[in-house]
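Quick one:
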Amino acid sequence: MVQIYRNGANGEIIRGQGLSAFIHNVNYYETIIGVFEDGTIDCWELVDFEEFKTKVAEGWVVTQVPKGARISCHHLYYGNSTLEFYIEIDEFVKEVEDTIDQLQGKQTVADTCVQAFAKFLTFPTKENKSSLREAYNAIPKHLRIYVLGDMDCKDSAIITCIQDTEVSQEILKSFQRRYEYIWQRSN
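Output:
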């Protein structure tokens, strides 16, 4: 994500974050989609979240380009697409919505997941495991690797906890030690 800003109607500065996607306007143009704290989204036009979802449904904002389609990465690349990995558009829309929440100081889906993880470590019940699984699955798929801030482990502690097998007390204790900062915030 890129920190961005725009001027509001009264000259105030409105904070935002830029997310990469494509605009499909005959060809596909790699661009930064501006997501702002006032809930507006700049996708070559300033729209609200509902209008943004319409732009996505109409194919104006996309995260996937058909193989062989013309792509422009402004002044860097212009040619035919050979891309093979994409973020799913529904997951991108979830990221945009969550980014608005973050910019507005609201709890994000990652915050909810970290709280559910801490609660499960403290009280490893079936209900808390289910809540943790639900919270983790609410995070956009492409962002489910760094929820705990530990890039080396890629959220393996959460994945271990939400599996159908029971987690031993020894493993739970080791997670409590490793992620003590999370566990302490919940108590």
